[in-house]
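Hey, resending since the last one bounced:
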Amino acid sequence: MERAQSKRDSGYQLKADLEGNYLIEKDHQATKTVGIFYAPSGGSVHKVARLIKQKLSDLHPDLFVISDIKPLQLLDYRCLILVCSTLGRNTWEMEQRDPWSSFLPRMLRIRLNGRKVAMVGLGDHVGYPNHFVDGMGILGRTVEEIGGQLIGMTETRDYVFNDSRALREGKFIGLPLDEDYEAHKTEARIDEWLKAIRCAMAEF
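The structure tokens again:
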């Protein structure tokens, strides 16, 4: 029922894949510049997402908590900024209750071809040094699977940790932040990261 209703009401062009799942046409035109999507709400992730929106105010970004939207809304934006939290000790395989765990499977029904995606992952380098910002790594793999182009990789030299799923060729695939133990570094890290993000976004 939900699938049929989405097809009738969304206004997006849909086609069915070999398994009968409806996929958004990859050439759907984005009409807005920047969308910031985050979860969960009400804590450090929310705080960081609002700070990023404030610092990009000249670009008039929209801000959404993912529990309030459908994945279709990601397609309205040429540039996406996704903000997620770390995974807990017993939830390395995405069994946690974080809203991203239920949002990711639904993202597989869309295609982010032509979109640039920057990611921010909050982690705890003291409590979980072997799984630092793993959530960002899992989310990043989904983004690439559906055609998104990741931007905003970060050097590891300013971070203390043992391992992370968010590493690629010696760099983080997005911006790691630790609001538990390094909150005093957050704003400066965001400022430096946004310089690179702005350059990448300006290439459209």
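The first helix runs from residue 2 to 9.

Sorry for the duplicate.
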